[in-house]
Write a structure and sequence with these properties.
Blueprint: E1 4-8, H1 14-21, E2 30-34, H2 35-41, H3 43-51, E3 56-62, H4 66-78, E4 83-87, H5 92-102, E5 111-115, H6 123-130, H7 136-149, E6 154-156, H8 159-169, E7 174-177, H9 196-202, E8 206-209, H10 211-214, H11 219-230
Helix pairs in contact: 4-5, 7-8, 8-9, 9-11
The structure holds cytidine-5'-monophosphate.
Length: 232
């Protein structure tokens, strides 16, 4: 699995997004389009960024009944994204239906990645609100295993969990890991963070980096620093 840095395009408009991307004159970074930008601009922003030559991770985290997810995934496959995702909590049946919907007539499909437990969910909230009383890391590994059994390509997880996920689900099972910060950078609202270099050591396949690249004076330099540390 080729390692890569994915920039989270957490912007609320086409103008801000394109003026950010215009700064990259030499490289075409792999980018993540999340709910904020997608809901603001719709599928046209996906097509526009794709036509500029970027790979796209469409991070919409689907979670609904299998039939609805299957039909929605078929629409997303038509957008020609490279990676998309759903919540493993929707069950194996939902994940299998999603894969079916995502598979194009020629047999190709974007990488389908599962969200396990959100990193914003604590052990305490999981027990009290979701009535799940197992240790959080055990729950994350179980969801990863279910995703692998359903045929998904990988999971979103913390770099700190990447090694264990590979042990449980195999080395080719992809780990996409946010929560990355430079050693001398701001942590912001992320709690458990690692540097790009440490994420590489821990076995992450893709790191998702937002503010350390988007909210800095020189995003191109920050992106190059990230790829230098992570991809080498
Ligand atoms: O700015 P920052 O580097 O914290 O951005 C991380 C990106 O990864 C954001 O788009 C955030 O929504 C996403 N993400 C995350 N933790 C997860 C899942 C997604 O930070 N567990």
């Amino acid at each position: 699995m080729g390692k890569d840095v994915i920039i989270a395009l957490d912007f609320d408009s086409r103008e801000k997004t394109l003026s950010f991307l215009d700064r990259f004159t030499e490289e075409k970074p792999f980018v993540k389009i999340g709910m904020e930008l997608y809901y603001a601009e719709g599928p046209s922003i996906v097509r526009e960024i794709k036509s500029r030559g970027h790979k796209i991770f469409l991070d919409l985290k689907l979670h609904d009944i299998p039939n609805t997810v299957k039909k929605s995934m078929a629409v997303l496959a038509g957008l020609d994204v490279d990676m998309t995702n759903l919540h493993a909590a929707g069950t194996k049946a939902m994940m299998e239906a999603a894969l079916e919907g995502l598979t194009r007539p020629d047999g190709t499909r974007p990488l389908l990645i599962a969200v396990t437990q959100l990193t914003s969910t604590s052990q305490e909230r999981m027990e009290a609100d979701l009535l799940i009383d197992k240790p959080l890391d055990q729950v994350v590994m179980h969801y990863a295993k279910c995703a692998a059994e359903a045929g998904l390509a990988g999971v979103v997880c913390s770099p700190l969990e990447a090694g264990k996920v590979h042990e449980v689900c195999g080395k080719d099972f992809v780990t996409v890991t946010p929560g990355v910060r430079f050693a001398d950078g701001d942590v912001g609202d992320q709690v458990r963070v690692t540097t790009p270099a440490r994420a590489k050591e821990l076995g992450s396949d893709y790191i998702v980096v937002g503010r350390p690249i988007t909210q800095t004076a020189d995003p191109v330099a920050a992106y190059r620093r990230c790829t230098g540390e992570f991809v080498g």
